[in-house]
Structures are given as structure tokens and as C-alpha cells.
Task: structure prediction
Amino acid sequence: MDTLLPLLDRHLPALVLAGIVIAGGYAWPRFLSYLRYCKIPVLNTKYDGPPENFLFHSAKVYEEGYRTRRNDVHRIIAPDGEHVVIPNRYLDELRERPDDEVDVLTAFMKVMENDYIHLFPCHHNTHIANSVVKKELTRSLAKINPALSRAVAETVASEMPAECDSGWTPVNINAVLLRMVAIISGHVFVGPELCRRPEYLDAAVNFTTDITMAVPIVKRWTKLIRPLAKYFEPQLAKVQAHRARMRDFLAPVIAERKAKKARGDTMPEDTLQWMLDKTEAEGITDATELTNMQLLLTMAAIHTTTLTTTFILHDMVARPDVVEACRQEIKHVLAASGDDGSMSTHALFNMKLVDSVMRESQRMNPPFLDSFRRYTLKPVTLRDGTFIPAGCLIEAANKAVLMDPDIYPDPATFDPYRFVRLRTNADAPDPLAYKNREQYQFVSVTKENMSFGFGRHACPGRFFAANEIKLILANLLLNYDLRLAAAGEGGLAKDVVLGSGVGPDPSRVILFRKARARA
Result:
């Protein structure tokens, strides 16, 4: 003690200064947050406290906000900070704001802790990846669809358990679909020669899972010391390992393609090649940058498509009449189209009951409770004088809108014919009075259904995803019988809601068997 006191006395000013810096680093962001948000009403003080209080009660929070404050700007306190919820009536105005005022990418970077996870490349490179999907991929759908149709048929046949050939077999369809979608999407993302390679499938299947687990781990670290998390959290190392393995996988592929192009060979038509062409034109040649763009595309496409298809099959199998009605529609459309073993984009468009079931399933099981995530880079004053400060993460309710009886009559009832009726029957009452009833298609984005987002930043890959889902459903329904498993056999579903995310019960099984001859 005698030696300790002089030591403390000598270094006391430095220790006090260090304490002030640490306390200030902790308190200053909270003070700024208070100044920014104090005039916006807060909704969920009763859920304050440990993060799990919000994570497990988030659906009630969003429902309460929509029920009590749907016409007013309000805020929700989430584990990662304040979220400002914007009424739907402002979305048409906000979607027209330029990105240097209200930015979608900054919002996702902050939500996904991009400074530490490094999911998103820089803004410019992310926009290149989005552009490839929005332009080259979407414009090529009719051209690539015959090959995609064959790829789906081959993949469904190879990935469904062989035991289904001999009788009813319990199948964890979410797990099977995850690998299926990775392979099928890979046909278009990296080409048929590479899409079944273990290195690709490991990243396609596991990268998103590991990212999803890493984000809340990072958020547990206070912002002042968050940069240190990478040195102590093994989950962050797993994410970086995925990135390194994917780069090792893609680097020789990229080099080979560049050599082929230099020789004047015919080049593949897939997103990797389109991305190579665009990045080359932009002077981007680093394989690491291309790897990050490819991983972003993989994450955005594969898991969301899997979850959506899983939900659709769960909703279908609980209603045998819907399974049979969709099966008959598919047969009728294919017979009328005259397609020789493949399903054209025109045939897929004409599967309107299937499309209606898909949209109804997504209405009841949206991937997120919220949508229209944006970050205000500048203060925003709306036309009616409503003020949103700079530095706010803004969003709009999604699931609560989809369950609004004024918009969707009898919303708690799964109505497989809801949207096909609105699209094909001019006498069917349209509560939203859309100018064009094709806005009730699965791929359409409106303020009343924002599962794919809203505005110019709506999901660019939704057209490809819709085709892929329809092809998978058609192949399963034509080639397999399916039925609900008993409760004790994993047949009862309990959806997983964690924060704003919604997913199907990952343990639920469906009984499948190879289709028998039907009269």
C-alpha cells in the first residue's frame, strides 16, 4: 500500500483524464441521441431493459405502434438503438428523396454493423452488384429460363431424399430447400460447372447464417470498444474465413475467364460474368472486391428465397385442396403452353393461382416486421411540416399493414384465392382501388405490401426469385405427393420471430412421397 499510494498520486491526473475520456465516449453518443430523438414520441418504454425484451416481443411492439400511432411519426427502442417509424402516408414523398438525403445502403450498413462485419462493399461497388441484378439478370430471364427450368428439375430430383421413392418420408423441407436454392441460384450466379462445388455451397449456405449470428454479438460491445470485438469474438473470425475461402475459390475462375475473353472465346451468361464486365469497365480488378460483391449477392438471394418457399409449402400442405388446385393449374398451363420439357416465363406468368398462394403466404409471413429502411443523412422536412432529424434510422411497419382489415378483409384467414380473384375478376371489390390490378402479383411492390421493399430501391432480384420459386413448387407438386405430418412427428409449425425478422420453424417436417399415377 505504501508503494501504491505514491504511484496513484503521481499518475492521478492521467487516470482522471482517462476516466473522463471513457465516460465521455460512453455518454456523449447517448446525449446526442437524446437531443436528436427527444421530440419524437417513444412507443415501447415498457419493453426497455435487456435486449431479449425487445427481440422476443417485437411483433407486439410493431402491432401496438400501428394500432395506436399509425398516422404519427414515432420511435421504437431496439437493442441497436432508436428506430423512427414513418406512417405509410409519407412513403411516396420519401421514396422520391435523393440518396444523399435519405439513403437505403447506409441504413443496412448500420443495421448489419458493416464497419465490423464488412458484409457490404463500398457504396459504389454495392450499386454495381445491384445494377447487375436489376438490369442484366432481370432482362435475361426469358433467355435463361429454359436452362433454369432444367436445372430446377435436375436439382429437385437429386436433392429430395431417395426414401421418398418408396413411401411417405418426413422431410425437413427448409434444410433441403436451402441446398436446392443454393445450387439452382448458383447455375445463374457462377454457372453450372461451379454451382455444386463444395467451396461454393459452403459459402452459399453458411455465410448468411454466420453473418446473422455475428451481428448481435457485435452489438453487445459498446460502441467505444466495438473495434476490439474482432480480436475476441470467434464468430467474426468465421465470417472472415468464409470470405477468404470464397476468394480462393473465385480467383482462379476470374483469371480463367479473363484469359478466355482475351482469346475472344464465347463467354458464359451468368451474374459472375456480367459483374466481371461491369467491374472491368469501372477499373475494378481486385479479386477481393469481386468476392465481396458475389457474397453480397449470394446472401441477398439464397436465404430469403429459401425462407419464402418454406413458408409457402407449410401453408400449402396444411390445405390439401390448395395443393391439388395448384397442381391442376400447373398441368393445365403446361399443356396449353406446349413447352417441350421446360417452363417458359410466359407459362410461369399464367400460373396465377400459384402466384396468389405465394403472395398470400408472404402476406401472412413477411420476412420482416418492418420495411422501407432508410438513414437520414440530412435533416428532412416533409411537405406537411413534419421534421425528421439527420442521423435517424427510419422504417415503416410491414406485417401490421398486411394484417389491417381495412386493407385486406378477414386478414387472419389464409385465402389462397385472394389475389387471383382480384387480378382476374373485374367485379371483385378492390379495397385499394389500384389502377392496374396486376399490382396484386407476387412481385409487385406497393405501400400496402412492402415485403420486397418499396420505391426505386425495392429488391431488384424479386423477378428472378419469383421464377425460381414457381419452378421449384411446380416440380415438387408434379412429382411428389405431400401431406401434413402429425403433431408428434414435427408437423406443427411455430414461426420464429426475432427482432424484426420472421422465419419458419426450422425443425418442422413435411411428409413426401414420389407421386403415384393419378386418374
Remarks:
- The chain has one domain: 86-514.
- The mean pLDDT is 89.
- The chain has 20 helices and twelve strands.
